Fold:
Amino acid sequence: MQRFGKTGLMVSRTGFGCIPIQRIPYEDSTALLRHAYENGITLFDTANSYTTSEERIGIALHDVRDKIVICTKSAPLSPEKVTQNIENSLKMLQTDYIDVFQVHNPSFVPYPDQENGLYNCLLKAKKQGKIRHIGITQHNKNLAKEAVLSGLYDTLQYPCSYLSSDEELSLVDLCREHDIGFLAMKGLCGGLLTNAKAAFAFLRQFDNVFPIWGIQKMAELDEFLSYEANPPSLDSVMRNTIDADKKELSGNFCRCCGYCLPCSVGIPINNAARISFLLGRAVKEHFLTPEWQEKMRLIDSCTNCGQCKKKCPFGIDVPSLLKQQQREYFKILEDNR
Structure:
């Protein structure tokens, strides 16, 4: 167990990211969450926008509520809507308090007494005992840094993996200096990284980082539990793996955050923009189907509206990347015929 920054909460170093559980049957998600808890995981991250995720946590873990830490979040909406989201989260989670309530990827850093009233709304909920700590999630490193330096947030959730740049990793040190709990999302870069052991070992070297691994299968959970029981070290073999992945993947690649969506012409940007990597790292046949060929042809229908590029928190020229990935996709398709 590790102290979760200035929240003072003691939590497991390994966290459970609850986006994937909405995709599986309820009985499976209950079994998965109980198995996680019974094997020492006490940190669970979700959001009211993750369809049934909160409800599933409530069903599986309401009877051990005082032994776990729940982080949930809401988009930066009006105070009235955020207040409603808090009430809905309490109901779904079957609890009367939320340990950490996070502002979900705002395009600005909420401060007290702003005209939008968002931060004051959270202070009110905290005073009422409905939330105990205020956190923020970000994909924009400059806004993340501003949030940490503001002193207003107890936790920061930010993408962190061994593909992160030195500038991004400096946020880890900044959070340590300011006693901010750092929730590391996308430790496997949305599935691009296939060596979970190396990903785990890399993040474990930072004592103030709490990875939230997205899990939907018992085998995945057991793998992470095995690493928690016997933490792997960053030996030379693992560092070579990391260096090879960084050489192949670092730079202008899609992190699969999905903030570019929806596309006005239906392009599945978050996978289409990284299809060549998926073809090399997943089951190739899954992405060479007639259905996927049609999806990749949708790129020809791009209207260059610029919305995806504007909304990308990493500043990627999304239309150009899509065109590049489309060319590579159909070359690989042709080579496999």
